[in-house]
């Protein structure tokens, strides 16, 4: 059986992020310190898909495995995070919002919150051993849109990424962290093998591979708290408020979707 592996959720790694991404950003110096913690702890960093394969098969990952994931596809990953990861011999998974990319061109969709990766940088990351996953096409609220739009968000993102990279894209992370049984079924039907939620808990045996939980890393995450998190210590207490808020908002979102469906809006 695969032991519980912390899956960390990052967004931006930037010294001066805009207000829209600041709370979920990490300063490059702090990120360097966190990677140094992983090195001192003797950690390895499998990709999200490698974790999914291990959870599916029951095959254990190396001891002290920690999965590093990054949502949205900000340009600062290539500028700041990648050199630090390479210096430590670590890898990660980047979930890319294809319609937000800097040179998306006629495929542009949604409203990026900061500078985004280019297609050339996405290819460069893949060539450096970074797993590229999908984060939908326009960063839509997948649990709030109708089936045709949902299927297009999933299909288009996967098609564009696989066309550019020339390799399968097996993983997806839900924009805003929310999904539903309907969304998770569509993700599986769309050819994805694994999907990342938020959850703020450790993955457990027999868990849903279409909703693998992750632990949020913020700008306020200090090195001591980070160390305890990757050691699996005090997670239930440290993330209790996050989980309560997630459950509350999930209930609100289910109700909102039900109302909109009755009114014929989705």
UniProtKB/TrEMBL annotation:
Q: Which GO terms describe its biological process?
A: carbohydrate metabolic process
Per the record, what is one GO cellular component? extracellular region
Q: Highest taxon of the source?
A: Bacteria
InterPro entries named among the record's database cross-references: Glyco_hydro/deAcase_b/a-brl (IPR011330), NODB_dom (IPR002509), Polysacch_Deacetylase (IPR051398)
The compartments listed are: Secreted
Question: What GO molecular function terms would the record report?
Answer: hydrolase activity, acting on carbon-nitrogen (but not peptide) bonds
Task: State where it is primarily located.
Answer: secreted
Q: Which residues cross the membrane?
A: none
Which Pfam families does the UniProt entry name for this protein?
Polysacc_deac_1
Per UniProt, the keywords (alphabetical) are: Signal
- NodB homology domain location is 64-266
Q: PANTHER family given for it?
A: POLY-BETA-1,6-N-ACETYL-D-GLUCOSAMINE N-DEACETYLASE, PTHR34216
Q: What protein name applies here?
A: Peptidoglycan/xylan/chitin deacetylase, PgdA/CDA1 family
